[in-house]
Amino acid sequence: METIKKQASRLREQMAKQHAVLRQFTMRYSQDPALIDEAELQCHQNLQKLYNSTKAAKHLQRNIVRGVESFIAISTKQIEILKRLADDCCKYGSDNQSSNFALAKASVDFGTSHKLIEKENENLLKILADQVFAPLREMIMSAPLEDARLLTYRYERIRQDVESQIAEVMKRQMKSKEAGSNDDSTSKLKNAEFKLTELQTTLSALGKEATAAMLAVEAQQQKVTYERLLAMVDAEKAYHQSAASILDKLHDEMILAKEQSDSLAQSEVIEINSQTKSITEGPEPMKSIQNNENGQANEGYVAEVIHPFDAQADGELSISVGDTIVVRQVSTIWMVTGRVPRKNWVVSICLCPA
C-alpha cells in the first residue's frame, strides 16, 4: 500500500511538470485543435471526482470501524462492572429478606433488571461486531477498490505519456514550420503524431475501464456503508427500547416495594402506640387463675420470655429473652409474676407459655 502511495505521489509531481511545459508551449504557439480531446478531458475530470469520492467514503468506513471497535472494547468493560454491581445488589437483597424496609427487595429487583439490560447490551455488541465492524473492515481491504485504483494510476501514467507526446508533436510542428518542409522533419512529425494517436486510443480505452471500475466501487461503497449504518441504528434502537422497558418495570416494582414497606411500618407504629397507651393507663383489672378440678386455686403456670422488657415504673419487672418465669395473675395486657398484687408486672406479649 505504501508503494502505491509513493507511485501516486511521483505521478502527480511528473504530471505537474508536464502541465507546466504544456502551458509554456501553449502560450508561445497556437495549439492545433486536433490535439485537444474533449472526451478525454471529461473522462479525466470524472475519474478525479470518483477518486475523491471513493477516498472520502473509505475514510468514513475506516472511522466507523475504529469507532465501533473502541465502543465494543469500552462497553465490554462497562458490562463487567455493571454485572458485578448487579451481583452485589442481589446478594444484599437475598441476605436481608427478613428486613421490613424496601431496600432489600429493591436491591434484588435492581440487580435482576440490570443483568437483563447487560444481556441486551451484549447482544447489541455482537450485532455491531458481526454486521457493522466486520463487513466494513473487509470492504476497506477488498480487491475491487485496490484494482480500481490501480487502473486509475495506470490511466494517469498513460495520460502523462499523452501530454508528453502532445508536447513532442507541437515541437515537431514548430521545427517543420521553421526549417521548411523536408523529408526528415515530416517523417519525424508523422511518427510523433502516430504515436500520439496510439497513446490516445489506449488512454481512451483505459479511461473507460477505470471509470467503470470506480463507478462500481463507488456504488458498492455507498450502498454497503448506508446499510451498515442503518443496521447500527436498528440494533441501538432495539437495545434502548428493551432497556427502557426493563427500567420502567423496575421503577414500578421499586415504588410498589416502598409503598408496601411504608404500609407495614405504619401498622407497626399503630400497634406500638396502642401498647404504649395501655402501659400508660396501667393494667386492667386482674383476672384470677381458674380453679383446678379440686376447687383449689392454681399456683400459676410457667412462661418463657420471647421479647425483652425493661421496667419503666415501680412494680414492673425487667426480663430478657430466654428467661423462665411463673405467671400468677393475668390481665388483657399485663401479667404478674409474683404473689403480691401489682408487683412484678410484665407485658403479656413478652411471654409465651413454656
UniProtKB/TrEMBL annotation:
It comes from Rhynchospora pubera. It comes from the Eukaryota. InterPro entries: AH/BAR_dom_sf (IPR027267), SH3-like_dom_sf (IPR036028). SUPFAM superfamilies: BAR/IMD domain-like, SH3-domain. This is SH3 domain-containing protein.
